[in-house]
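S.,

Sequence below, as promised.
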Amino acid sequence: MTEAGSKTSKIRVAIIGSGPSGFYAADHLLKQIEPLITVDMYERLPTPFGLVRGGVAPDHEKIKSVTKLYSRIAAHERFSFYGNIEFGKDMTRWDLSDHYHGIIYATGAQTDRKLGIPGEDLPNSYAATEFVGWYNGHPDYHDYDFDLRGIKRAAVIGVGNVAMDVARILGRTPEELYQTDIADYALEALRYSEVEEIYVLGRRGPAQAAFSNPEIKELGEMADTDIIVDCDDASLDELSATHLKKARDRSAIRNVKILQSYVDRGSTGKPRRIIMRFLVSPTEIIGRDKVEAIKLVKNELYLDERGSLRPRATGNYELLPVDMVFRSVGYRGVPLPDVPFYDRWGTIPNDRGRVLKRHEGREVVMGNYVVGWIKRGPTGIIGTNKPDAIETAECFLADLAAGQVLQPVDSRGDAIIDMLEARKPTYITFDDWRVLDEIELQRGAAVGRSRIKFTTVDEMLEVLGKSTELVGAPK
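The prediction came back faster than expected:
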């Protein structure tokens, strides 16, 4: 075998996860001229694109169009996609070390953060991640049942973009949703929704809200839903006004202006209402057999020792009657088998993308790298992942030049295919995905929709002729 990093060596990198950060990392590596790098991407699901497919709201088709770029990356002659392969089960870190010079983890933040309050696990109290996965047709959430009949008042805890998505989907008409790629079963459930009021609750003030300008603006443009903002909720306290003026945060300034415009508008008589509330925190979700109310405490803002505005409880409480709760206070990563993990942050410990053996140390795990939310936490938008991924890819390239990468036993593509055939003969290629993609588009076009998704792994494999019975693999 030639020395790693030499001009004649065949360098191969594995990427675990197929969301935006994984594709941006692949793109940067594939653009290198010397040495030429081959990239293999592994995904637990048969479908690529991560949260762009399973997390971006169905009525945000323009955002989803970024998958056209990822498909062009996937068409590169030195790129391969292997779906329906679960890291740690079908293939381990040690397996990959035998075949690759570098391993990049791009698994994102797959679960929700807990509120840590009584009643959080009552029936009709859900993580926003569950609802989002359900209406997006993610196979992990296909069997969830969101029965919105009899639900008059719902609360969304959090004021990030995901919270805005949840509130907006709850307030959309069936006609608005029909044109999208929302899962069929979700469209049917939302058709019979009886939700009339949707409360969106933020623990800090309007100037600190994490939603983007387009997200909050969109709430004011819905066919059958008014957005209601009380004057007190849209007003800035003295600390926020001073901080906003000094920071010159254009996005935050615009958010406040949009919210204040809703105060003047008030109700226009539409059948549903989204009610924005700020400076309140839930202290308990109340109910006997299911959610009946939320106990809220009024907050005030103060400057902490680092000069950041933080909320603190005032001791003034209120009871808000609701029938359903969606908790949207952030995502967090989950540990990967045999990969270091920092539980407090829900991330893989790293230095600019180089995996560290532990969070407090500086010792790296040679040849192992991380990108995206599992690297930095759930911050930023899709485009934020590009510089993040380039930073990590550059670390790999520097280590490659220094000879500080993995030394695989056999990095031939044939050896990897042989292993896949032996371990998981129902693996999915990008060509297989193109078949699924085309069928989904055709199914949608036949009924005037953008797409009708496959929502279970079994039906995807059956359509491709890759069911376990057909390939002769053990059930």
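The two ends are 39 Å apart (CA to CA).

Coffee later?
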